[in-house]
Amino acid sequence: MGIGKSKTHNFPLCFSWGKSHSVDTSQGHLEPESRKAEIVSLCDVVEQSNTTEKQTGEQEGAEVGEESPEGEAEEEVFLKFVILHTEDDTDEALRVQELLQNDFGIKPGIIFAEMPGGRQHLQNLDDAVNGSAWTILLLTENFLRDTWCNFQFYTSLMNSVNRQHKYNSVIPMRPLNNPLPRERTPFALQTINALEEESRGFSTQVERIFQDSVYKTQQTIWKETRNKVQRQFIAQDEAYNTWVASVL
To answer: Where do the record's region annotations for Disordered lie (predicted)?
Structure first.
């Protein structure tokens, strides 16, 4: 009985072991194929991921390429005119600006109120006067009441005297609305022929003053001056870097 039990117990154990061994053996033969399949599957995933990243990168590159022109700094433009005016005459200055640009084709032009904010007034005045061919002084009743406007026209006149290419670049103008009477005009401005919008010869005056040849001459000098200043800045920067390297 003991032996019988032993045989009875051994058979299931052997069967169980044999089944287990059979499974292990089967798995042992299939493991390389399974791992190979897993590797292939992983390779497919990696390849698909790389392809997706490549496509995404190309799309992003294309988007950057499309956006890059907008991101580039706009080239500064030498203006044809700037209108100096009081704060109360902003609307009148805009009207005159549109008149010169739309009716006479004199553009681009700007009014002082359109200069960049957050900067010092003197810097804006310097950029406006030296960054344009003509400086128009809007002579209204409000002009003499504004101390800043008085400073503007004196500065503009001195600039035109001290810089040869700026000679005759300051243009006093009496607009249609609320013009400053001649008898109340400062003496320094009385010596300059003013634009009279209400006069019959206004169109002829405009055509005679705002000539393209004068604009191109001033534009060339403006570019040369800017390039010279830029070269000086680069030279100073290089000299400073050389000095720092020698000290260290």
So the answer is: 48-73
Does a structural domain hold residue 5?
no
Determine, yes or no, domain membership for 54. Answer: no
- Same-domain pairing of 217 and 167: no
Residue 155 sits in the same domain as residue 235: no
Do β-strands 195-196 and 170-174 pair in parallel, antiparallel, or remain unpaired?
A: parallel
Nearest to 138 by CA among 190, 196, 98: 196
Reported residue count of the chain is 248
Nearest to 109 by CA among 137, 134, 144: 134
pTM for the full predicted model = 0.64
In a domain, 112, yes or no: yes
CA 43 to each of CA 57, 126, 195, 224: distance values in angstroms, whole numbers, following the listed order = 20, 66, 80, 61
Same domain flag for 234 and 111: no
Domain that holds residue 227: 212-247
Query: Within a 10 A sphere around the Cβ of 56, how many other Cβ atoms?
Result: 10
